[in-house]
Design goal:
The chain has about 325 residues and is of the alpha/beta class. It contains eleven helices and 13 strands.
C-alpha cells in the first residue's frame, strides 16, 4: 500500500508535507507519494480577504481527498476554516512548533528601533492591527506572496536574491514557517504573546483524511483500525490538539471571518489548559483581551473554554471594535 499525501506546491507546504510523510512512513512502514494540488489561493493574486479567505488554500485539497485522488492532506492548521468538512476528519495534530510571530527587519532592527514611519509588510489584518497598537506611527503595507518573496521585500536579509526588490523596512511572519524552511536567520525579533497574540492554530499542522480512514476512537464504530489509521494516531499530540481546539472554538463562537483581527493562544500546564484571546480594531486603537483556564482536559472541555473566552470578548465589546465577519 502506497499512501498518497496531498500538498500544495509552495516551498513551505512541500517542506512540511515531506516531514510529515517521512514520519508517517517511518511509523506505518508503508511507502508514501506526494500529490501536488494547485489551490485557488496559489493562482489568484490580491489580498487574502478579497480572494475569499484562508479556505482558498484548502478547498482543492479537500476535494482531492473526497475524490480519492489522495489519501491524506497536510495543512497549516491556521488555514483551515472552523466549520466541519462533511466526510473528512482532522486525524492528527502533530506536536506544535513555535507559535510566535517574528519581525524580519533591515539591519537587525527590533520593533522599538524602527524609524518613525517605517514601512512594514504583512498579509494579516491581525498582525497589522497589533503592529499599529504597538507602533501607531508605522506605515503598514498589505503584502502577498510566499515566504521567500516576502523576505525579499526587505533589503539585506540573509538568503535574499540579488534581484529582490528590498522596498520595505521589515515584514512580520510566523516563526514556524521560517523554521521549517531554514530561514530563521532572517529574524530580528521574536514577539512574545503579550505583544502579538498568534493566529488560532499557528505553529500547528493538521493531517486530514476521509472519515472512514481516520483512527477509531474508544467506544465508536466510525473510523478505521488499519495501518494508516494507527500511524496517524501515533503522530497526534494530545496537548496540541487540546490547545488548538480551544483556540478554534474562539473563532467559531465569534463567527469570525478570515480578515477578522483575532488572536488566540492556548497551552497546557500540568492539569490546566490556559487560553488567552484578543480582538483588535484594525487601526490598532482598541484591543480587548480575555483569558481563562479549565481543568477539563478533553476536546469538549477545550471547546467550552474557547466559547467562554469568546463570550467574555463579546461582552467586552469585541463586535463593536472590529468587523468580525470580515472575509
Amino acid at each position: 500500500m502506497t499512501v498518497r499525501i496531498g500538498t500544495r506546491a509552495s516551498k513551505l507546504a512541500l517542506t512540511q508535507t515531506r516531514q510529515t510523510a517521512d514520519q508517517l512512513a517511518a511509523v506505518g512502514g508503508f511507502p508514501v507519494e506526494l500529490v501536488h494540488i494547485t489551490t485557488e489561493g496559489d493562482v489568484k493574486t490580491g489580498s487574502l480577504s478579497q480572494m475569499g479567505g484562508t479556505g482558498v488554500f484548502v478547498a482543492a485539497l479537500r476535494d482531492a481527498l473526497l475524490q480519492e485522488s489522495c489519501d491524506v492532506a497536510v495543512h497549516s492548521l491556521k488555514d483551515l476554516p472552523t466549520g466541519a468538512a462533511l466526510g473528512l476528519t482532522i486525524a492528527a495534530t502533530p506536536r506544535r512548533v513555535d507559535v510566535r510571530d517574528v519581525l524580519c527587519a533591515r539591519d537587525g532592527l527590533k520593533l522599538a528601533d524602527l524609524p518613525q514611519g517605517a514601512k512594514v509588510g504583512t498579509g494579516s489584518p491581525r498582525r497589522a492591527a497589533q503592529l499599529r497598537a504597538a507602533r501607531p506611527d508605522l506605515d503598514v503595507h498589505d503584502i502577498r506572496g510566499n515566504v521567500d518573496t516576502r523576505l525579499g521585500r526587505v533589503p539585506g536579509l540573509p538568503g535574499n536574491a540579488e534581484t529582490a526588490p528590498g522596498d520595505l523596512d521589515a515584514v512580520v511572519l510566523a516563526a514556524a514557517g521560517l523554521e521549517r524552511i531554514g530561514r530563521l536567520d532572517t529574524v530580528s525579533e521574536f514577539f512574545e504573546t503579550d505583544v502579538m497574540l498568534p493566529a488560532p492554530g499557528q505553529g500547528s499542522l493538521a493531517i486530514e483524511c476521509r472519515t472512514a480512514d481516520a483512527p477509531r476512537t474508544a467506544g465508536s464504530t466510525q473510523g478505521s483500525q488499519g495501518v494508516l489509521a494507527q500511524a496517524l494516531a501515533a503522530l497526534n499530540d494530545e496537548d496540541t490538539r487540546l490547545a488548538v481546539t480551544a483556540e478554534r472554538a474562539v473563532l467559531a463562537r465569534l463567527e469570525a471571518g478570515c480578515a477578522a483581527p483575532v488572536g488566540a493562544f492556548a497551552s497546557r500546564k500540568g492539569s490546566m489548559l490556559y487560553l488567552e484571546a484578543a480582538v483588535c480594531a484594525v487601526d490598532g486603537t482598541k484591543i480587548v483581551r480575555e483569558k481563562k483556564a479549565t481543568d477539563g482536559l478533553t476536546e469538549v472541555g477545550a471547546t467550552l473554554l474557547g466559547i467562554e473566552v469568546a463570550e467574555l470578548l463579546l461582552a467586552a465589546g469585541a463586535a463593536e471594535i472590529a468587523d468580525l465577519a470580515a472575509s
